Amino acid sequence: MTVKAYGAHAADKPLEAMDITRRAPGRHDVQIDIAFCGVCHSDLHTVRAEWAGTLYPCVPGHEIVGRVSKVGAHVDKYKVGDLVGVGCMVDSCRHCADCEDGLENYCDGMVGTYNGATPDAPGHTLGGYSEQIVVHERYVLRVNHPEEQLAAVAPLLCAGITTYSPLRHWKAGPGKTVGIVGIGGLGHMGVKLARAMGAHVVAFTTSESKRRDAEALGAHEVVVSKDPAAMAARARTLDLIVNTVAAPHDLDAYLNLLKRDGTMVLVGAPATPHPSPQVFKLIAKRRALAGSMIGGIPETQEMLDFCAEHGIVADIEMIRADEINAAYERMLAGDVKYRFVIDSATLAAA
Ligand code: NAP
Ligand code: ZN
Ligand code: ZN
């Protein structure tokens, strides 16, 4: 079936309206009419080929919410009309140790929602900047938030799970002091989630203008990282740092802030490497530097349920599909509070 989408034909071309084909739902497939799709910085990295291996045409989008419009004969988890979400993956090998542990995000055969291998035309997956998507039921999530919050739920599918997973894995909670670095799409969710988990939350931003916002999002303290005195005052005070920054920067400035046995988890994925961290910063206090990639399907459902229970959604700015190129420029300028979400109804007119 042919549906409207928005994507790019080359790294140096703007995104434009295009028609794409979706497969007819197979026995275990769920067909979803997309209502909204969040705009992740990874969409921009990919569509502009800042990371290696982008295939064109490239239709980004992996923060998808919508309503089930058709199901295959063997689908038992979902029925027509259900509110559902799709995040960063649409398939995996389903039988390796990672898949069996519900950590499909670490499966070598994980298929990304866009730019992943698929037998479907055109040979790679096309993402959520489109009217419709067809996904195996195993990779579909249930949305339990009230329907009027649906647009603001979309960013949970990537920004939410990517911060929730390391916060849970490294046990953010009461008695722990957690730093969130970079108050963008991921970071603003990290602040909300760490706060809801009961941690003492310190937000680190390069933008003085985000100070009051970060407090409103739930940060107990806000540090403008360009202020060396403010940074020095936080030395050896944090148990955990989740670093969401999308550009290379000096990691030592943050490693310094960890207590003994503290961990900094990198989730930001800049296109070029960070300057190498200073080994002495790590060995002096037995500190760890780690990474984390999105989250598995069961944990993503757990995160959605946690957010529904705690009334957590993203702070969003809704855009039309034809505003996406301008939105990318604003994202690069740090001018989004805090996630753009495409209203998929505008694809028909685009
Ligand atoms: P975003 O909305 O653009 O936020 C990034 C934030 O980083 C900015 O708001 C800014 O915060 C800070 N920042 C940007 N450039 C900076 C610089 N040069 N120096 C210092 N701080 C800077 O992006 P996002 O959607 O949250 O994504 C963040 C990164 O995570 C991207 O690289 C993305 O690809 C990656 N990502 C990774 C995963 C994963 O699974 N690990 C999943 C999703 C996304 P302040 O203004 O507060 O400083
Ligand atoms: Zn993402
Ligand atoms: Zn697997």
Automatic annotation (TrEMBL):
Family annotation (PROSITE patterns): ADH_ZINC (PS00059), D_2_HYDROXYACID_DH_1 (PS00065)
Cofactors demanded by this protein: Zn(2+)
UniProt key word Cell wall biogenesis/degradation: no
Keywords: Metal-binding, Oxidoreductase, Zinc
EC number: 1.1.-.-
InterPro entries in the record: ADH-like_C, ADH-like_N, ADH_Zn_CS, CAD-like, D-isomer_DH_CS1, ER, GroES-like_sf, NAD(P)-bd_dom_sf
Domain Enoyl reductase (ER): 10-342
Single GO MF annotation: oxidoreductase activity
Superkingdom as given in the UniProt entry: Bacteria
Pfam family for this entry, one: ADH_N
Family that this chain belongs to: Belongs to the zinc-containing alcohol dehydrogenase family.
Protein name: NAD(P)-dependent alcohol dehydrogenase
Species: Massilia aerilata
